[in-house]
Amino acid sequence: MKSITLRPVLPALTLAIFNITLLNISYSPTVLADEPIVAAAATKSTKAHSQTLTLKTALARTLAHNPALSLFEFRKQYLQAQKTQGQLRPALALDVALDNVAGTQQYQGFDSAELTVALSSVIEMGGQRRARSALSDTYLAKSRLNQQLEALDVLAKVTRLYIDTLAAQERVDLAKRSLLFAQKNDATVRQRVDAGAAPSADASRAQSAALQAQLTVQAERQHLSTLKVALAAQWGSYKPDFNTLTGSLYQQPWAQAFEALFEHVKKSPNVQIYTQQARVNRAQLRLAKAESAINIGWSVGVKQLQDTSSNNNQALTASVSLPLFSAQRNKASIAMLEANQAQDAVHQEQALLNFYNQLYRAYNNRQQALLTLKTLRDHIIPLLKQARQQTQQAYQKGRYSYLEYISSNTELIAAERAQIDTAAAALKYNTEIEQLTGQLQP
Q1: Residue 104: its pLDDT value, please?
Q2: For residues 54 and 168, what is the distance between their CA atoms, to the nearest angstrom?
């Protein structure tokens, strides 16, 4: 598998993602130009199962097809319609009234009927329409931030799955190497047993170890298959159309200093959402105060007067209505909104403290994982490889028992597996840091 370098960045929260370098994976122009993305339905064949998947492709598919992200488009349409509705002026009403009909004496029938036709509406005071529009704008801005946060969550999940799948590929390779060693060891032990240089129990142990190594390969392959299905599900696919993932677990990304990262947190959507909520609360308060203003109802029309002498006369009619105690009725709503507004600064400060703790934990855990990875790679694994080779030579000369020989290999395999797990953990801690800081580089 061709290894490509992974670099730490979350992709832009748009459907077009360019130059994604998260997870220390970098993509050369040649690789991207030649990379198959989705096989056409008419040309699907066994080639689809030999495709390689890059992180860029996985993230692009997720942004384009993840159901959780598509819901925000409907939310945006709803808020836009709400804003349009709020900008409408008060509606005009046509009032028709017929008086002095079907009464007694001179009011029998329609001889004394009076018909009034009028138009009526309300004059909104206090800038209510402007306040409604401003509130709708804050809702739209908050929805955009929520969309960014959801995209960060979804893309971080995909990235972690990608890392887990890369690690699973490495564990399959490790299990294959272990199986190969166990099979060679089985043959070596049989030769020694046949030559009378080792007890027959060693042959049984070696055969058992080979069978267990075979089971491990099968289990690791099954785990890898499960992760591939989970990864493909992130963009709505039931079956993965890729076979292998590109990337390296061991070329870890460079990270900024903790203080610089926390400055990014303060500017990230994670914190901006609290600032935007404060704007929403202020806009709601302004609207509530505007609605406390007295709206003036008006009506203008024409009345037709008809007396018993069948003379028809017309007259203009006009009326004005003012609601009483409207400001008093809105005091409770204003008080609740003012209480919410007073809590905004506290909520944001508490959120910053929580994000600081999360960032500190992820940063320190990543540093520890990198130190462990370096120690395993540069010191522990080379020493264990040397010890296995020496133990193997000593066993063949009859100086060490089979148990000592096989233990040296078990220790090496455990260290190599720990190296895989530690490298994956460091990359996932880096993903958490990228998610908290919201560092988006197109």
Answers
A1: 64
A2: 15
DSSP-assigned beta bridge partners for residue 106: none
pLDDT at 316: 85
83 φ, ψ (degrees, to nearest 5) = -65, -45
Q: Nearest-CA neighbor of 428 among 252, 310, 296?
A: 252
Residue 319 tokens, joined: 């009326």
Output the DSSP codes for 99-123: ES-S-SGGGSTTTT-EEEEEEEEEE
- Count how many residues are written for the chain: 442
Which phi and psi angles does 386 have, rounded to 5°? Answer: -65, -40
The whole-number pLDDT of residue 96 equals: 84
- Looking at the DSSP bridge assignments, the partners of residue 6 are 25
Question: Which residues share a beta bridge with 117?
Answer: 96, 302
Cβ-proximal residues to 156 (8 Å cutoff; 6+ apart), any chain: 10, 431, 432, 434, 435
Half-sphere exposure in the Cβ direction for 56 (13 Å, CA):
25
How confident is the model at residue 224, as a pLDDT? 96
Name the stretches of the chain with pLDDT < 50.
1-49, 440-442
Q: Looking at this protein, which amino acid is placed at residue 297?
A: G
Close Cβ partners of 227 (under 8 Å, ≥ 6 residues apart): 161, 164, 165, 168
Q: How far apart are CA 148 and CA 154, in angstroms?
A: 10
Q: What is the pLDDT of residue 342?
A: 83
Residue 25 DSSP label: B
Cα-based torsion angle of the residue sequence 424, 427, 433, 435 in order, rounded to the nearest 10 degrees: -90
Instruction: At 112, give phi and psi (nearest 5°).
Output: -110, 20
Task: Give me the sheet containing 296-306, strands edge to edge.
Answer: 93-99, 114-123, 296-306, 312-321
Look at residue 65 and give its three-state secondary structure: helix
pLDDT tens, residue by residue, 60-105: 899 888 878 877 777 778 788 888 888 888 888 888 887 777 666 6
pLDDT confidence of residue 7: 35
pLDDT of residue 65: 87
Longest dimension (CA), the chain: 141
Cβ distance 144 to 116 under 8 Å?
Answer: no
Name 306's bridge partners.
312
CA distance 22 to 6: 6
Q: How far apart are CA 426 and CA 442, in angstroms?
A: 23
